Amino acid sequence: MELFLRGVAVYLFLLVLFRILGKRSLAETTTFDFVLLLIIGEATQQALLGNDFSVTNALVLITVLMGIDIVFAKLKGRYKPLDNILEGAPLILVDHGKPLKKRMKEARVDSEDIMEAARLTHGLERMHQIKYAVLERDGQISIIPDSSA
């Protein structure tokens, strides 16, 4: 039972942690971020397994973690508010060429990130050419060009 509770506690902690960090932190993983994730994985292993490194214990723990993930996936499908809490919702960052600075700051996205997405996807050069820039749930920035600009 202790193993089950450890698995649930660590899963929920990491879920909350990555929701607080925001979408962009996962979408733009750098080499340092990757190393940090490896370190987190090692620390998590110690928290989850304690001193019992048996294969049986590891298999039970993997089953618990995957089970929690499956339960959340099914609940998200049924309850839209839970889906928004766990996965977030798309966020408009630019509205008719005007950057929404407060939202950009909260999402830790700057004008250069938006313009990079605009250049890569549509070849746009200026902010006023963007009708909407949307920070998607997966951390990517979608650009809808302004056809009148």
From TrEMBL:
It is found in: Cell membrane. Residues 80-147 form the YetF C-terminal domain. The keyword Repressor does not apply. InterPro entries: DUF421 (IPR007353), UPF0702_alpha/beta_dom_sf (IPR023090), YetF_N (IPR048454). It is a multi-pass membrane protein. Residues 11-68 form the YetF-like N-terminal transmembrane domain. The keyword Transmembrane applies. The chain crosses the membrane at residues 53-72. Keywords: Cell membrane, Membrane, Transmembrane, Transmembrane helix. PANTHER family: UPF0702 TRANSMEMBRANE PROTEIN YCAP. Belongs to the UPF0702 family. This is DUF421 domain-containing protein. It comes from Parapedobacter deserti. The lineage of its organism: Bacteria, Pseudomonadati, Bacteroidota, Sphingobacteriia, Sphingobacteriales.
